[in-house]
Amino acid sequence: MELELGIDPSAPFPRKLADNVWLLGNFYFNLFLIKGTTASALVEMGISGITDDVIEQLESIGVSPDYLVLTHPHADHLTGLPGLLAKFPKATLVSGQGAQEFIEHPKALPTFIKDDQFMSQMLRSKGIEPGRDPISHLEFPDNNIVVSTDMILDLGELTLNFSLSEGHSPGSILIHIPEKNMVIASDSLGFHFTGKRFLPLFFTGYLPFKNTLEKIRALKPDILGIGHQGPFLGNNAEKALSSSYQKTIELFDQISNDHREIEVIAAELFTENYVDEFTLYTQDNIKNCCYLLVKRIRG
């Protein structure tokens, strides 16, 4: 299934998606600002290289977020957090259960630093100059709310309905904004290759990932926010969900019926997919991603 382009990569940011809802960041790293009558929330943190752009975008709208929502603890959604917390020290972090443990694992920080540095370099190669140096440290703030089950955050006439988003990563959450019929799914659809397809990213489990997709489809969103090269609006939201769901099943069947060694299948998957926007990430990162996809099926 060919997809309509989620967003025009040349159009300026921020972009208004609906009343009191904006898309921030840039084409490659998408953040979402939700402004209620009593509070506001910034969903997604992006990487350090876009933090200053995001701060300028927030200032242009005239909003200082009361909440910073971490959808899941992967570097491309996380490493903008230190800069945002420094700018908005009174903001409360909202994250999923398990995110802090994932971030504070002894092996995590060196990987976050390496990935953040590489992504900043790749942005520079595309003509997007990072506003600051990559991170050198990352600490989980004391002022935080942990989502361990369904939870509602009232912003005043707008509500963020949180639920666990399983299958992609530990500590992953899904955000539904019923007043706007909007879902912020982050990477729960996989990775969007612009206008073409999704690559499923079920790093912690195939069936939970598929179940999360079914949960999102049941909500029938008019605005579907994803982590990269999105969002999708109107009929394109259902097209994106259908494409992701179809590709998830196809990849499961492909890997299930391939009896070669896991490493061989993963290497082939890497060669097929390390193209276009996926090259913003290190080869080691994507090779590990491909290995996990095969392993979650072949075990």
Describe the structure.
This protein is an alpha/beta fold. The chain is globular and about 55 Å long. The protein has helices at residues 51-61, 75-78, 81-87, 99-103, 108-125, 206-219, 235-256, 262-273, 283-298; strands at 15-18, 21-25, 30-35, 40-43, 67-69, 92-96, 144-147, 151-154, 159-164, 173-177, 182-186, 191-193, 197-199, 223-226, 232-233. Helices cover 36% and strands 21% of the residues. The protein has a single domain, classed as Ribonuclease Z/Hydroxyacylglutathione hydrolase-like (Metallo-beta-lactamase, Chain A, 4-Layer Sandwich), CATH 3.60.15.10. α8 packs across α9 (283-298). β1 (15-18) and β2 form a beta hairpin. It starts with 14 loop residues before the first strand and ends with a helix. The strands form 3 sheets. Strands 1-2-3-4-5-6-7 form a 7-stranded mixed beta sheet, covered by helices on one side. It has a 6-stranded mixed beta sheet with strand order 8-9-10-11-14-15, covered by helices on one side.
Element pattern in H and E: EEEEHEHHEHHEEEEEEEHEEHHH
Helix content: 25-40%
Distance between the termini: 29 Å
Low-confidence stretches: none
Question: Largest sheet, order of strands side by side?
Answer: 1-2-3-4-5-6-7
Backbone structural class: alpha/beta
What is the overall shape?
A: globular
Mean pLDDT across all amino acids: 96
Instruction: Report the radius of gyration as a whole number of Å.
Output: 18 Å
Q: How is the biggest beta sheet arranged?
A: 7 strands, mixed
Count every helix, treating DSSP H or I runs of 4 or more residues as helices: 9
CATH superfamily: Ribonuclease Z/Hydroxyacylglutathione hydrolase-like
Give a count of the beta strands, DSSP E runs of length 2 or more: 15
- What fold name stands as the CATH topology? Metallo-beta-lactamase, Chain A
The CATH class label is Alpha Beta
CATH architecture: 4-Layer Sandwich
Number of domains: 1
Strand content: 15-25%
